[in-house]
TrEMBL record:
It holds the Pfam family DctP. The keyword Signal applies. The keyword Zinc does not apply. This is TRAP transporter substrate-binding protein. Residues 1-22 form the signal peptide. Keywords: Signal. CDD domains: PBP2_TRAP_Dctp3_4 (cd13665).
């Protein structure tokens, strides 16, 4: 065999190998409801994608579709990933009211005190109590927003009486029920509309995590902020999740599945928690530096608000029973894992 024949054989071998490499590569379409500057994308999901790309030698890549660029509403993200419109979504189960009842326990009043510890607790809770309702998905992570503070434009809130008639944007049905129990008037709307609604006086402010304040420019239209003291639980919180299309995951080679498994679950939940807590601290610092007034509820004041929202717990437990769930057991488990039992 001469040199020319060897060269041709080598060229053909390389050419026939190329389709196998290309076929093995995968691009994950990742969708969520916030702008691309949101910490969830910049500090968690993008670094995760970079880690996957490096560990897989480029065989896993990501394409982001923030701010609902694939169409639809935040409430439709769970269906978009289930149906394969997106491969991965970051969203809130509470946007699909009543669809994922067991996981709602972490949104009940005064269950969440920070993002890091509650996100780890939520992942454990999911594994023990809520896997069945997510059987149609490959679940990558659950986490919380760390708790929702009260952000208002012109009406400071410092005690239970100040909630009377207060119109606030709420993100979940349990957040709305909590606000009602405190005497306020909940208004549902997507995060992207909140700032404009406050500026126009449609609402007085918003219940929202500190992490959302800067990406949504909430700090530009609110002057007053209310939060519990460190170690005390917030009036409500939002559960968030990263879901993957099950068929997409099942179609991956075993080594790529292993990479995804190794970098998600409690690892990703903890990362979200740490980022959200870090963002909260930095946001509070910036808000205070820019003249915003942050009021801190004492443990005694939190206890007063907690007593006022006991009806929300009771109603949720009753509704859970009607769905065949032991609501009292779930709520007890959630607060025990989160460290917020009374």
């Amino acid at each position: 065999m001469n040199a020319r024949q060897l060269f041709l054989i080598g060229t053909l071998s390389a050419a026939t190998a190329l389709p196998a490499v290309a076929q093995d590569a995968v691009t994950l379409k990742i969708a969520h409801f916030l702008p691309s500057v949101a910490p969830a994308q910049q500090k968690v999901l993008q670094p995760w994608c970079e880690e996957l790309g490096k560990a897989s030698h480029g065989r896993i890549q990501c394409q982001f579709f923030p701010a609902m660029q694939l169409g639809g509403t935040p409430a439709q993200l769970a269906d978009q990933v289930k149906n394969g419109v997106a491969d991965v979504v970051w969203t809130a189960p509470g946007y699909s009211a009543g669809r994922f009842p067991a996981i709602e326990a972490f949104e009940l009043p005064f269950t969440v005190q920070d993002a890091t510890s509650s996100s780890r607790a939520l992942w454990q809770y999911y594994q023990q109590h809520a896997q069945q309702e997510f059987s149609a998905y490959k679940v990558l992570a659950f986490h919380t927003d760390g708790g929702q503070a009260v952000h208002t434009s012109s009406k400071p809130v410092a005690a239970l009486k100040d909630f009377a008639g207060l119109k606030l944007r709420t993100s979940t049905r349990l957040g709305a029920k909590t606000l009602q129990a405190l005497g306020g008037a909940p208004v549902a709307m997507p995060p992207a509309q909140v700032t404009e609604a406050i500026a126009k006086g449609v609402v007085d402010g918003s219940l929202g995590s500190w992490e959302l304040v800067l990406p949504t420019k909430l700090s530009e239209v609110t002057k007053f902020h209310l939060q519990p003291e460190a170690g005390a639980a917030y009036p409500t919180a939002t559960v968030l999740m990263v879901l993957m299309n099950k068929r997409k995951y099942d179609s991956l080679p075993a080594d790529l599945k292993a990479l995804i498994d190794q970098t998600t679950g409690e690892t990703m939940a903890t990362r979200f928690g740490e980022v959200f807590d870090g963002e909260a601290a930095e946001t509070r610092r910036r808000v205070a530096a820019e003249g915003g007034k942050i009021t801190t509820l004492t443990a005694a004041e939190v206890a007063t608000l907690r007593k006022a929202t006991a009806t929300v717990d009771a109603e949720w437990i009753k509704q859970s029973g009607e769905r065949g769930l032991d609501g009292n057991k779930l709520l007890t488990a959630a607060r025990a894992l989160a460290g917020t039992n009374e």
